[in-house]
């Protein structure tokens, strides 16, 4: 939780305010990209399927539903959707807390059902001072 500056390869990518809602049952992400794009996600753990879930919605109309598990210090979520034009993409997001209290978010996509992956976003989250 907290207010984060996010960089990619040392360059400012945006900011992310992450809050706890619903008595701590929902993690709410408020993304503001450096180029003006925004988005929000709602993250929660579902005891029925023993998985973490994320629903992402952006101001550009992108929607993504992901689910996954937390193992060995990394939360990994996967989801798939058909893009405009018919291309089917699988998305894989992983979040890993580093020893220096930063968090790495690696977002990868696959157009061949997960045989190969391309990096879509590799961000470093550092808490804002103050």
Walk me through this protein's architecture.
This protein is 0% helix and 68% strand. It is built from no helices and 10 strands. The model has no long low-confidence stretch (mean pLDDT 96). It is globular. By secondary structure, the protein is mainly beta. Strands 1-2-3-4-5-6-7-8-9-10 form a 10-stranded antiparallel β-barrel. Strand 7 (74-82) and strand 8 (88-97) form a beta hairpin. The protein has strands at residues 2-8, 11-21, 26-33, 38-46, 51-58, 63-71, 74-82, 88-97, 103-110, 118-127.
What are the SSEs and their pairings?
Blueprint: E1 2-8, E2 11-21, E3 26-33, E4 38-46, E5 51-58, E6 63-71, E7 74-82, E8 88-97, E9 103-110, E10 118-127
**Gyration radius, to the nearest Å?**
15 Å
How much helix, percentage-wise, in residues? under 10%
Average pLDDT over all residues: 96
Largest sheet: 10 strands, antiparallel, barrel
**Count of DSSP strands:** 10
Helical/strand content category: mainly beta
Which regions are unreliable across 5 or more consecutive residues at pLDDT < 50?
A: none
Principal-axis shape: globular
Give the amount of beta strand, in percent: over 45%
Distance between the termini: 15 Å
Number of helices: 0
Could you state the order of secondary-structure elements as H and E? EEEEEEEEEE
């Amino acid at each position: 939780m907290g207010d984060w500056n996010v960089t990619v390869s040392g360059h400012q990518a945006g900011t992310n305010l992450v809050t706890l809602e619903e008595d701590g049952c929902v993690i709410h992400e408020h993304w503001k990209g450096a180029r003006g794009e925004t988005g929000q996600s709602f993250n929660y753990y579902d005891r029925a399927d023993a998985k973490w879930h994320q629903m992402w919605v952006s101001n550009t109309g992108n929607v993504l539903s992901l689910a996954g598990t937390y193992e060995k210090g990394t939360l990994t979520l996967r989801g798939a959707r058909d893009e405009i034009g018919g291309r089917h993409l699988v998305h894989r997001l992983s979040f890993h807390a580093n020893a220096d209290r930063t968090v790495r978010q690696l977002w990868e996509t696959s157009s061949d059902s997960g045989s190969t992956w391309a990096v879509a976003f590799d961000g470093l989250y550092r808490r804002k001072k103050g």
